[in-house]
Structure formats: structure tokens, C-alpha cells
Write the C-alpha cells for this entry.
Amino acid sequence: MVRVEVKPELLRWARERAGQSLAGLRKRFSHLQSWERGEAMPTFKQLEAFAEATHVPIGYFFLPEPPEERVPIPDLRTMADRQIAEPSPNLLDTIYLCQQRQEWYRDFARKAGEPKRAFVGSASVTDDIEETAAEMRRPLGLDLDERRWIPTWTEALRRFIDQADALGVLVMVSGVVGTNNWRKLDPREFRGFALSDDLAPLVFINGADTRAAQMFTLAHEVAHLWLGESALSDLGPLAAPLHQVERWCNRVAAEILVPLAILREEYQRSAGLRDELDRLARRFKVSTLVVLRRIHDVRALSHQELWEAYERELERLRCVPRGSGGNFYLTQAARAGKRFARALVVSTFEGQTSFVEAFRLLGVKKVETLRRLGAELEVGV
């Protein structure tokens, strides 16, 4: 049986990169410890299985040393005021997949004669926050009075996504890599990212985060598109980033969702903070953490009071159970983005895109699944 010569440090790097323990992987690869010690070598079939288990391209195992992987877009995430290193395979594969989808849609839009999205790159970090937020709400169709009467956060988020989609933004929301439910995304690593492009602007939202938190992430990443800049973000509404772009996008996102002028009128100082948080969160359909930040911004909470309330609220939110399940086809449409999925289904059944390519980009395996997805999206195929 032919064995493959692989440097032990590459096997060890792949395992650690995937966050796997030696004991955990030894159940599938009984000789892994010997491989990592250089005492034995895997067969090619075993190496293929190991590459799949650790989410590493098999070609990496033939490199002279472990590669230094970097996020392929500007990484503006911070933790304790330091840039986060060593992106997870789940994060990298999610960005790569979205870049492939964006490239496909850019080509589709160009051939279809779609106009460039004028809003991409139309703003600058020197622009006034309140004026920019107001200018963004208009083309997005964000009506704050309408949002007041939307019954749930989920419906409010869906409405916001649909409005961004109608404007030409590819909005993708998923808590897993592609369609692999075993590869869950960690909102502590990243909340979302934006891939700027004047034909195929794209926003990805980490669906493992809460619905209310996703609302802020969407507004934050759309602000990046208005600047015409791609970025990876992990910031919540209370963050005070050192990076000027992240600071601007955070402030614009907060103003889009909860305008200070309206909050000043509606905030009842005589009421208890707990009651006001819940009431205003329902009114604006945002996280109570966003409301906390805006109450602080109107100088109704000191910095110390803000952080004390934030810690209490964060602990409470951690105990709130999350829903699960749902319509499979709606989930798939949300993961890939309705605009992208509609275009890909139509292009495939018209013969312009191969079924193999469509299956790869959508993460499905059957023609019937693609057909039913089209029906759910009201696309005649």
C-alpha cells in the first residue's frame, strides 16, 4: 500500500487549525499520533479523509511548511484593542464562498445590463452622521413608524433584508458554513462582513447571533458599502473602536436604527430603565443593547452606568432561548440571499449556468431541490 510523505508539523497544524484534539480525531484516524511524530505515514486515501475532517485543501499537505493564512478582506475586528489573529477555517471558507457567489453575480449582472449601484462609495467618513443615516434610510425604504407596528424582531429583520435586497445588495444570513450544519459559525469571532462592489455589493450576517443583534450588524455592514469599503467586523453597538471607519459605521448604524432626535422625544426619564429598554427595543425593533447605547448618547446614562447596565443586560440575553427549525427552502434562500438565489435558479434552468456550478454555489445536490427553491422564491422554472 502506497504511503504519502507528509511533514508531521503540517498534520499537527491542520488539526490545531480546525480546533480538534488529538484524542477526538484519533477515533477516526487511529495512527494519527504516529503520523504527527513522523513514525508512520498515511495513505493517500487516509490523507484525503483527514483533509476533509480538518477542512484543509489537500494540496496544503505538500507544502514545505504550514501556510500563514490571512483574512482576504480588510480585517477590522478587535479584541481588547488588538487585532484578532488566526482566522478559523469556518470564517475563511465562509468568506471564500461569498466571494465566489459575488463573482458569479457580478458576471450575471453585467450580462443582464443591470445598472451600477450608485450608493456604493457615495459616502465618506468625514460626512455628517445624522445626514448620512437619513440619506441611507430613503433608498432603503426604512420607515421608522412602519417598524413600530411590525410584531416581531424576526419580521423586522426580514423586512430590512428585503429592503436591502431590493436596493441591489446581496444579503446572506447563515449560522453555518454553506449548508453544513456541523460547521457552526461563532459570533464571538465575527458578526458579519461586507464585500464592496458597484454591481454586486454583498453583506454577510452571522446567523448564529440574536435576531436583534443581526439588525445592527446589517446596518453596520451596509454603512461599509456606502463607504465603498470591504471589511470584516465583530463590533456590537457599545464598542468604541479605534479604527476610524469602524467608529463611523457604528455611529451611522445606530443613527439609522434609532435616530437621536426621535429618542430624545420618546425616552421617558421618569420610567425605570428596565421598562424603557424593553419598550424602546420593541418600538425600534433593535437589541436592548442598542437602546442602552443611544440612551447614553443622549446623556441620560453616565459611562459607568452604561457599562453596569450593559453587563446586566448581556447576562439576561444569554439566558433567552433561541428558536430553531423552519422551512428548509426559506432557510436556504436566506443563507444564499434571495437576490443571488433567484438569479442563479433562473440562469441555471435557462441553460446559462451548469447544474454542477449551481449545486456548488448553493450547496444542494438535486435538481428537484433547485426547482422547489425556485418555486419558494416565486421564480417560474
Remarks:
- The longest strand covers residues 170-174.
- The beta strands are 78-79, 82-83, 170-174, 176-177, 180-184, 192-195, 202-206, 231-233.
- The CA atoms of residues 238 and 307 lie 9 Å apart.
